[in-house]
Specification:
18-stranded parallel sheet, 22 helices, LRR_dom_sf, Leu-rich_rpt_Cys-con_subtyp, transmembrane helix, membrane
C-alpha cells in the first residue's frame, strides 16, 4: 500500500475489503465480483498473490464455477491448474498417435499437484495400440510426480508402461487397469507404495503366461479387486501367492479364479489376513470361494454376497467366522430362505450390521428370528425390497420390540408398506439416527407424525419417491426433528417456508438420485471430452 499513490490508496482499501469478504464467504463470489468490476479488475488481480489466489480457487468444486476462471485472465487459469488435485481425461477413439500423446504430456505438466487421475475411453471400447497406451503411462509418470490414485481404463498396457509409471509416480497407492496380461504381472512389483489394485480382465488372452522373473516377490497390497475372470482363464497363481497381506478382496462377475489345481491351491494363500470379502455376480465360484474363506480367513469382519448361488458356503462362513463377523450384506433373491436366516440368527449374535436386499423367499417368521438373538449388538438393519415386510403384518413390530438399540434403519423399495406397520416399529426404535424410506409409496403424512413424536435423535431421513407424503408433512418433519442434518426429498415438496427452515438449521438436502464415485478430497472430478486444443492458455472447459 505504501508504494501506491494517495489517490489510489483509498481505492485499494475498498478492493481489499471486498477480497476479505470474498474469502469469508463462498469462493464463487470472487468470480462474480471480478466479472462486474471492469474498472478495477486489473488492480484486484494484482493485489492477489498466487498463494492466496490458489487457496481461493482450490475451493471451487463445481464445474460451472471453474468455467468462469478462464474468463478472467491467463494467470488465473494457470494458478487454478496448479492447485487442482483431481482430474479426469476422456480419450477419444482412434487417437493412437504421437501428436496426441504429446498434447497429453503437455497438459499433465500444468497440473503439478494432481493426486487423483482418471483416464477412460470415450466410447467405452478398449484401444489396442499398446505402444500408444504405454506412452500415456510414461507421460503420467513424468508429469504427475505426487500422484496417489490412477484409474486407467483406456486399454491394456505392457511392462514398459508400468515400469515408466512406477519410476515417475513413486507415491502411487491405488491403481486400476483393464485387460492387463498375466505375463506383465511381475511389473506390479515396481510399485513400492501400492496398496490397492483393481484389474478388469476384459479382453484378456487366456493363453498368456507370466515369466519366471519376480516369481517369489511379495506385493504390498491391502486391497485387491478383480472383475471378469473367465472360466477358462489361468495363470493367476502368482497374483494370489504374492498377496498374503491382503485385507480386502473383491470379485465381480467372475466365472473362475484360475482353472487349474495350482491356481486353486494358490488362491488360499491370499486369504489368512482378509477382513472384508465381496462377492458380486460370481455365482459359478461363489460356493468354493466362501468355503475357502471359512477355512482360511483368520478374522473375517465383513461379507458382501450378491447374486450368488447356493448358500452352503454362506453357512460355513457364518458358523466358522461368527466371532469376528460384524457386517453381513446379502442380496440373494432366489437363494436365501428361512433356514438360512435361522443359521444367521443362531450364530451371528455379535453382528452389528445386517443388510438384506430383495428377499423373496423368507417369510415373516424367518425375519422375526433375527430379533431375539441380535438384540444386544445390532446397530443397522436394512430390509430393502423384502416381501414379508409388507405382506405379513406384525413383522416390523416384533423386530422393533427386540431391536430397541437400532441406530440405522432402511426399508426402501417396500412399495406398499403401510403407516401402521412402520409406526409400530418406530415406537420401539426411538434411538434411530438414520431412516431411509425411498420408494415406500404406501406411506402417508401419518407416518411423519410417528417419526416426529418418537425419533427425536434422527440426523438423516430419506423420503424420496414417497408419493403419499406431502409438502406440509416435509415442513413438519424439518421443524419437528431438532437434530436433523440431512434430508432426502423431491424439490417440489420443499416450500419457501421449508427452504428458510432448512437454511437456518443448516440441513443438507438430497433432491435426486446420485451416483457415488470414488473421488479425491477436492470434490467432483470432471472429464475433458475434447482434447483438440491443449494450449496452456486455452480455456479449461
Amino acid at each position: 500500500a505504501t508504494v501506491l499513490s494517495t489517490k489510489r490508496f483509498a481505492e485499494s482499501i475498498e478492493i481489499l475489503k471486498s477480497v476479505i469478504v470474498i474469502i469469508v464467504f463462498p469462493p464463487f463470489l470472487l468470480l462474480i465480483t471480478i466479472r462486474f468490476m471492469d474498472s478495477n479488475r486489473d488492480m484486484l488481480n494484482s493485489l492477489l498473490c498466487d498463494e492466496l489466489l490458489g487457496e481461493i480457487l482450490g475451493r471451487l468444486q463445481e464445474i460451472c464455477y471453474c468455467k468462469e476462471v478462464s474468463l478472467v485472465c491467463r494467470r488465473w487459469l494457470s494458478v487454478q491448474r496448479g492447485v487442482k488435485i483431481s482430474l479426469g481425461l476422456c480419450i477419444p477413439e482412434n487417437t493412437s498417435n504421437s501428436c496426441f500423446g504429446s498434447q497429453v504430456r503437455v497438459l499433465l505438466r500444468q497440473y503439478s499437484q494432481i493426486s487423483n487421475l482418471s483416464l477412460v475411453s470415450e466410447t467405452g471400447q478398449l484401444q489396442r495400440d499398446t505402444v500408444f497406451l504405454d506412452y500415456l503411462l510414461d507421460a503420467i509418470g513424468e508429469g504427475c510426480r505426487i500422484l496417489k490414485e490412477l484409474r486407467f481404463e483406456v486399454g491394456p498396457v505392457s511392462s514398459y508402461g508400468l515400469q515408466a509409471l512406477a519410476k515417475g509416480s513413486i507415491h502411487l497407492t491405488s491403481l486400476e487397469l483393464v485387460g492387463l496380461s498375466p505375463k506383465f504381472f511381475g511389473s506390479l512389483w515396481e510399485f513400492k507404495s501400492l496398496r490397492e489394485l483393481t484389474l478388469d480382465f476384459l479382453g484378456w488372452d487366456s493363453g498368456d503366461e507370466m515369466d519366471g522373473e519376480n516369481s517369489d516377490v511379495e506385493l504390498p497390497l491391502e486391497k485387491l479387486c478383480l472383475a471378469g475372470i473367465g472360466a477358462g482363464h489361468t495363470s493367476l497363481g502368482w497374483l494370489w501367492r504374492s498377496c498374503s497381506k491382503l485385507q480386502k478382496l473383491e470379485l465381480f462377475s467372475c466365472e473362475g479364479i484360475g482353472d487349474c489345481d495350482s491356481d486353486l491351491s494358490s488362491f488360499v494363500k491370499c486369504l489368512p489376513c482378509v477382513e472384508e470379502l465381496y462377492l458380486r455376480r460370481s455365482r459359478t465360484i461363489a460356493n468354493g470361494v466362501l468355503l475357502s474363506a471359512a477355512e482360511n480367513c483368520k478374522a473375517l469382519r465383513k461379507l458382501v454376497f450378491h447374486d450368488g448361488g447356493n448358500t452352503e458356503g454362506l453357512h460355513h462362513v457364518v458358523v466358522r467366522q461368527y466371532q469376528s463377523l460384524e457386517v453381513l450384506d446379502l442380496r440373494l433373491p432366489l437363494d436365501l430362505s428361512n433356514e438360512d436366516l435361522a443359521v444367521i440368527a443362531e450364530n451371528c449374535q455379535s453382528l452389528k450390521i445386517l443388510r438384506l436386499h430383495s428377499c423373496c423367499l423368507p417369510t415373516g417368521a424367518g425375519l422375526k428370528l433375527l430379533g431375539p438373538n441380535m438384540s444386544l449388538c445390532l446397530q443397522e438393519l436394512v430390509l430393502v425390497g423384502c416381501r414379508a415386510v409388507v405382506r405379513e403384518p406384525g413383522t416390523l413390530a416384533t423386530l422393533g420390540q427386540h431391536l430397541k438399540g437400532l441406530k440405522k434403519l432402511d426399508l426402501s423399495d417396500n412399495d406398499h408398506l403401510p403407516d401402521k406397520e412402520l409406526g409400530a416399529m418406530l415406537s420401539s426404535c426411538t434411538r434411530l439416527v438414520s431412516l431411509r424410506l425411498i420408494s415406500c409409496r404406501g406411506l402417508t403424512d401419518m407416518v411423519v407424525v410417528s417419526i416426529v413424536q418418537r425419533c427425536q435423535a434422527l440426523e438423516s431421513v430419506d423420503i424420496r419417491k414417497c408419493d403419499g407424503i406431502t409438502a406440509e408433512a416435509v415442513f413438519a418433519l424439518v421443524s419437528g426433528c431438532p437434530k436433523l442434518r440431512q434430508l432426502g426429498v423431491e424439490e417440489f415438496k420443499i416450500t419457501e417456508a421449508t427452504k428458510k427452515l432448512v437454511s437456518r438449521k443448516k440441513i443438507d438436502t438430497i433432491k435426486a438420485e446420485t451416483i457415488d464415485y470414488k473421488m479425491a478430497t477436492c470434490g467432483m472430478m470432471h472429464f475433458f471430452n475434447d482434447l483438440h486444443n491443449l494450449d496452456p492458455n486455452a480455456s479449461l472447459l
